[in-house]
Every structure is written in structure tokens, then in C-alpha cells.
Design goal:
Blueprint: H1 9-20, H2 25-35, E1 39-40, H3 41-48, H4 52-64, E2 68-73, E3 76-81, H5 85-108, H6 110-115
Antiparallel strand pairs: 1-3, 2-3
Length: 116
């Protein structure tokens, strides 16, 4: 019988709160862009092809969840990753997704159906 790890309700809620910050493709893209170094809102907006207010809203969510931090440099605010391990976690999730998709493709492959 599998046992659940000892998790309090509060820690599960915090985990879900953090993960909700990752529940948007643009926010994930922002994190990957910040993995290359600090960027300001205008640079991110240009790189993503979306408006500055939209990028600002995404950054607010990422800041609230502790995934990025802001640092003022003269008249601009630059954003950086708060912890590079988030990129490792995203890469791991991407590997899981790739393996799942390959498994699904294998099941749907006509070669597999005729081989049996």
C-alpha cells in the first residue's frame, strides 16, 4: 500500500499556489527568458510579442509566488529568477511531457497495430 508523504494542508495549498504561477505559457516563457539574465518589462514584451501591461501582469503573479524578483536600476526595473531550480523543475516537467507524448504516439502508431 502506498502512503502519502506527510504533508500538511497548508503546505499542499502553498504548493498549489506556487504551481498556479506556472499555469500559463507566457509566464513559463518569461521564466526561460529570465534564465538567460535580467530583463526589464519592455525587453520581455518585445521578445514575447505581447503588450507591456500584459507582461507586467504576468510578472506580478510570478513575483507574488516568489519565482522572480524585481531590482531597480536607475529608471528601469529589471527582473531575475529568484531561484534557478525553477528552470530545472520546468525542464523535468518538459521531459515528463515528452515521454508521455512519445508513449501516446507509440500507442497510436500503425506499425504497432500491425505488428501484433
Amino acid at each position: 500500500m502506498t502512503t502519502l508523504p506527510e504533508l500538511s494542508s497548508e503546505s499542499v495549498q502553498l504548493h498549489a499556489y506556487l504551481c498556479s504561477g506556472l499555469a500559463d505559457a507566457k509566464r513559463i516563457a518569461i521564466l526561460y527568458l529570465l534564465a538567460d539574465g535580467p530583463r526589464n518589462v519592455n525587453a520581455l514584451a518585445h521578445m514575447l510579442g505581447i503588450s507591456q501591461p500584459t507582461v507586467s501582469r504576468h510578472l506580478k503573479i510570478l513575483r507574488e509566488r516568489g519565482l522572480v524578483r524585481a531590482q531597480r536600476r536607475k529608471q528601469s526595473v529589471y527582473y531575475t529568477l529568484n531561484d534557478r531550480r525553477v528552470i530545472q523543475a520546468l525542464d523535468l516537467l518538459r521531459e515528463v511531457m515528452r515521454d508521455h507524448l512519445l508513449s501516446q504516439a507509440h500507442l497510436l502508431s500503425p506499425d504497432v497495430a500491425t505488428a501484433g
